[in-house]
Design goal:
By secondary structure, this protein is mainly α. The chain contains 6 helices and 2 strands. The protein has a two-stranded antiparallel ribbon with strand order 1-2.
């Protein structure tokens, strides 16, 4: 790891990135090992950043101080009582601040909901106006304009919904027409194939009749076309010819 530039600008840019990376590593260590990890960091300007994977950073300090000397391995001085009480006081103060913040947030949300409720109630009064409270012509005119605008909005919404329903109906009809046209096109192809085979058969019969009075000559060409005509007429359904 290379040390960052010692300039104030370099430290300001590097610290937030490194801080987030350290907090991420602490979270990963806590998840992998099942431990409670606490961090205390100070920015180049002296801003405190505390982090604890479970609970608060004060809880980790108190848990450490309350351990026996053998477990602490003499890392804490004998003046631990003076440190223990301030930490507990700090923990209580922080809990109080967090509760106050939650209360203020809830009060803000409650005020916002009350404001929305008052606005809705005022709006509903315009639809169910008490006529005996109308004291001037201007007030009656304002009420009339409000109702006229509301009716216009309802009519506009109604027309929009009708147009959407008509478009959906037209789309369904166009799909049905497309299916019918495709079936008719298939029938026309079948009819054309039938007419071609019938024409070829008539040409062969006519040519053989012109060649003699003893009946059609059983040539190889005649037998081949006659066989093809028989196959077409037996396998294909001949549609009704349209006028």
């Amino acid at each position: 790891m290379k040390k960052s530039n010692s300039t104030s600008l370099g430290l300001k840019v590097t610290y937030p990135k490194r801080r987030d990376a350290i907090v991420k590593k602490a979270t990963e260590l806590s998840l992998l090992c099942g431990t409670n990890v606490g961090l205390i960091l100070f920015s180049p300007k002296g801003k405190l950043t505390s982090f604890a994977t479970h609970g608060r950073i004060e809880d980790i300090f108190l848990q450490y101080i309350e351990q026996s000397n053998e477990l602490r391995k003499g890392c804490v001085s004998t003046n631990q009582a003076n440190l223990h009480q301030p930490l507990k006081q700090l923990k209580r103060e922080r809990e109080m601040l967090e509760k106050l913040e939650r209360i203020e947030t809830l009060e803000g949300k409650l005020q916002q909901l009350n404001q929305q409720q008052r606005e809705k109630q005022d709006k509903m009064k315009c639809y169910n106006y008490e006529m005996h409270k109308v004291s001037s012509t201007s007030e009656a005119l304002l009420h009339q304009q409000f109702l006229t605008k509301a009716i216009h909005n309802v009519e506009h919404l109604k027309a929009k919904m009708i147009n959407m329903e008509e478009e959906q109906s037209q789309n369904l009809k166009s799909i049905e027409v497309a299916d019918v046209d495709s079936e008719e096109f298939d029938d026309l192809l079948t009819w054309g194939e039938y007419m071609n085979s019938e024409k070829n058969r008539n040409e062969v019969i006519e040519r053989n009749q012109n060649g003699g009075t003893s009946g059609p000559h059983l040539s190889l060409e005649f037998l081949t076309k006659q066989k093809q005509w028989n196959l077409n007429t037996s396998s294909a359904k001949i549609p009704n010819k349209r006028v």
